[in-house]
Amino acid sequence: MKAIRRFTVRPVLPAALHPLSELARNLRWSWHAETRDLFQSVDPERWAASGGDPVRLLGSVPADRLEELAGDRRFLRRLAAATDDLRDYMRGDRWYQAQSGGLPAAVAYFSPEFGITAALPQYSGGLGILAGDHLKAASDLGVPLIGVGLLYRHGYFRQSLSRDGWQQEHYPVLDPNELPLVPLRETDGSTAQVSLALPGGRSLRARIWQAQVGRVPLLLLDSDVEENDLGERGVTDRLYGGGSEHRLLQEMLLGIGGVRAVRTYCRLTGHPDPEVFHTNEGHAGFLGLERIAELHDQGLDFDAGLEAVRAGTVFTTHTPVPAGIDRFDRELVARHFGPDGELPRIDVERILRLGMETYPGGEPNLFNMAVMGLRLGQRANGVSLLHGQVSREMFAGLWPGFDADEVPITSVTNGVHAPTWVAPEVFRLGARQIGAQRTEDALTVGGSDRWDSVADIPDQEIWELRRSLREQLVDEVRRRLYASWRQRGAGTAELGWIDGVLDPDVLTIGFARRVPSYKRLTLMLRDRDRLMELLLHPERPVQIVVAGKAHPADDGGKRLVQELVRFADDPRVRHRLVFLPDYGMAMAQKLYPGCDVWLNNPLRPLEACGTSGMKAALNGCLNLSVLDGWWDEWFRPDFGWAIPTADGQATDEDRRDDLEASALYDLLEKRVAPRFYERGQGGLPDRWIEMVRQTLTHLGPKVLAGRMVREYVERLYAPAARSHRALTPDAARDLAEWKARVRGAWHDVTVDHVETSAVTTTAELGTTLSLRVLVGLGGLAPDDVEVQAVSGRVDAEDRIADAECVPLKPTGGPDVEGRWVYEGPLSLDRTGPFGYTVRVLPAHPLLASAAELGLLAVPSEETGEGAGVLMR
């Protein structure tokens, strides 16, 4: 029979054990080994059955066991030590508190998903794991962050396989009362809520839940409340589900509702109001509109409010392909705003203008969430050096006339939260070498360029550690594979072969990620005979562990999974290649440390960053990857391998995949496997161990989320906070009026004449020429603009590369036609073909970038002809 109502019955802990509840409700346990060990000791079997979730564990422990622990003085001493440690962690000063320079009082960090722990399944892949690691690192560093997301009642799907290898999805119902969450409550004890207006006089209400991620509160909005109609209750049903309107409502709730939730939280707790709002991908972009509406209520018009909001907003893009961005029909967005929807005080056309693709190559009837994010954020970044470059090219249409490298999108390369992803055995090895506290500091705060102490660890210890981790992975794989085959309908009698799957002494390769086509799950199957030879080599075999989920609506991705699974089912190779369903954080924490090589073979440059290889590297696993994402930035042959790419325009897709697969097989056969199996005089693979050592020494400090968050603080949050403070209401009005005046007058800005002191088109290195430029400013004054000389090497078509920009100075008042003369030096500091041009840009002390307005004036072809090209 089915229950008509469900309750969560909480255990009553003896008074001596009350601190267990405090420890369970703070998700710091997910990266604090001593706290997890304490919970495991409560009841090891139930701890395993709970999936390592303290809240579920405490809900299942019998009362007599709790009474026994309440009288166990040794356990109570450990409990007191863990509780004191957490309280010190929460209250003490950390890295952030030691910094100077006007850092923000608080930062609000919005993301559609957060991967904190498997016990709170609110993530689908890299974006969510990155967001979770961002919160954890911010906590470790003492950054006053407030996380904001949605609480999905079904989370992301659980994956299993049919007998013929087809992906099947399951959506377990999550009860928030059984998760490590507490409801945010008003002063009268009622549950705190936010509300959004919907067309037709309806409303969308959401309860605010709070997860405590160390020092960082994470606010999650849940629309499954009784006051909502059935349709509205389902808005937060599942991550990345539903059609366009469903996704739009999710993103309105995340952005608009999220700002309201932050205001509610700060009002109820006294937490400082955020000075900086960080939009992690475009899904939360509507947060800027809500903040403009707040300022409108305080007397600022739309344009001034927009300037004030932009000043304190940081936008991070994670996708290198337009298809990865949420885009909505103009009419759908228009219907949900204005007099009959949300933000009725704001003209709908102004809202639409922020997101419409009104630029060359855009779809003018589509509302683009990333475009809105860029227009609402004064500072923007990609997530690796290469991805920053790709993003500047992808969004260059928003800044017409500027070279792609001047588009104001920088990059902060992602990092991973080492205490979450480093195996306890690796941590203990570091602690034996330099002490537990120094190891913890190195993994959280970071700050050094190299971990030189790794050089002193004996080869034997490194090799024994690697074998131990590989052995643990073999055990984990066999356990999961057995469970998977039972789900697929196999009987126990059929599964004896699983006891022989994988070998703890064989070179082990890992490949695990989401399964969109560009990540090329099945590239390894391109030449099956050759792959089989590698798997079954008599002296140097390899074994491969594969995992990954295809999006529920992506049948192409599901076919790739099925193709891989069917190959892995072949009795000839199933002991050497396995596919594990239901890839998630719990699996990943065993997989990364246990592999010797982490394989990544996306289509370059479609991998924005690719943090799984970073997590593997922190455990001494070597990377074998296409030069994409972070690997393009930090690869060195001392600690890994680069798969060559065949990305010339003349190469079709099939030919490209054939060439790159062949290169992969060659690397495995001729370089990777021989290096692993080759033994030195002491019977150890000396050269392999040295590569492990180099990985830890050089990559370890770079791939830390602590390094990443410190970069965000120093390069983006601190400048955004300064801009936010500078944009007082009067300053915001003045800036908005100045921008309107400049835009209105810009069509009259011209470069009328350019001349230099050069008499020929050749000159000697080190020569300095005088440059004289006549510009028309129309109704603008010299204070409104900057006139620049732009010079550098030129290609065959006279395009300037590695440009250097030098401001020129006005030399007197305007002539009778209102034109101004600007002069300055032009240094010929490079040999070879060299050229220059001049340009006029808007200039204002409150602009974050010269390209901010997307306006510039350059010489006409006739004007340029008269000036000549130098050093051709």
Summarize the main sheet.
10 strands, mixed
Instruction: Tell me the number of strands.
Output: 27
Percent of residues in beta strands: 15-25%
Q: Would you identify the regions where 5 or more consecutive residues have pLDDT less than 50?
A: 867-872
Structure explained in plain terms:
- The protein is of the alpha/beta class.
- Helix content is 39%, strand content 17%.
- The chain is built from 29 helices and 27 strands.
- The strands form 6 sheets. Strands 1, 2, 5, 6, 7, 8, 9, 10, 13 and 14 form a 10-stranded mixed beta sheet that branches. It has a 6-stranded parallel beta sheet with strand order 17-16-15-18-19-20, with helices on both faces.
- A hairpin with a 5-residue loop joins strand 3 (158-161) and strand 4.
- Residues 867-872 have low confidence and may be disordered.
Please specify the SSE layout and strand pairing.
Elements: H1 19-25, H2 33-42, H3 44-49, H4 54-60, H5 63-70, H6 73-91, E1 107-110, H7 126-141, E2 145-150, E3 158-161, E4 167-170, E5 182-183, E6 193-197, E7 203-213, E8 216-222, H8 230-233, H9 244-269, E9 276-280, H10 287-297, H11 302-311, E10 313-316, E11 327-329, H12 330-335, H13 348-355, E12 366-368, H14 369-376, E13 379-382, H15 385-394, E14 410-411, H16 418-421, H17 424-434, H18 436-444, H19 459-487, E15 507-512, H20 528-535, E16 542-547, H21 555-568, E17 577-580, H22 585-594, E18 597-600, H23 612-617, E19 622-626, H24 629-634, E20 640-643, H25 653-677, H26 686-699, H27 705-726, H28 729-745, E21 750-756, E22 768-776, E23 785-794, E24 800-807, E25 809-810, E26 819-827, E27 834-842, H29 861-867
Parallel strand pairs: 1-2, 1-9, 2-8, 9-10, 10-13, 13-14, 15-16, 15-18, 16-17, 18-19, 19-20
Antiparallel strand pairs: 3-4, 5-7, 6-7, 7-8, 11-12, 21-22, 22-26, 23-24, 23-27, 25-26
Helix pairs in contact: 1-6, 7-27, 9-10, 10-11, 11-27, 11-28, 17-18, 19-22
